[in-house]
Design a protein that fits this description.
Length: about 100
């Protein structure tokens, strides 16, 4: 969530995944995917920076640690699917390793 300030001075947190666009008219207007509009004190550049910082923080947090059972293990890279040993897989289901794409 990013913290923003309404024109009235009250602060609120907004999920940046719901933002469709941000306009400067000259006030900053945030339009969500459902059509809801918010008029905020922050400039267009400040809103964009807050969203980029939020997403960078999520990626940095996800790449540092992985929860494994009761322990926490340090990770070296992000992975969409955890590695599973064949004997841990569902019975009768083969695990097919995927190869990275060649550029």
């Amino acid at each position: 969530m990013v913290t923003l300030t309404r024109i009235t001075g009250t602060q609120f947190a907004l999920n940046p995944d719901l933002i469709e666009r941000v306009d400067r008219t000259p006030d900053t207007v945030i339009t969500l995917v459902d059509g809801t509009k918010y008029l905020v004190r922050e400039s267009l550049d400040e809103v964009v920076r807050a969203i980029l910082d939020y997403r960078a923080q999520i990626l940095a947090s996800a790449s540092v640690f992985e929860r494994v059972g009761e322990a926490t293990a340090r990770r070296g890279r992000l992975s969409a699917v955890p590695e599973v040993e064949q004997d841990e897989a569902l019975p009768g289901v083969a695990v097919v390793p995927l190869s990275p794409r060649n550029p």
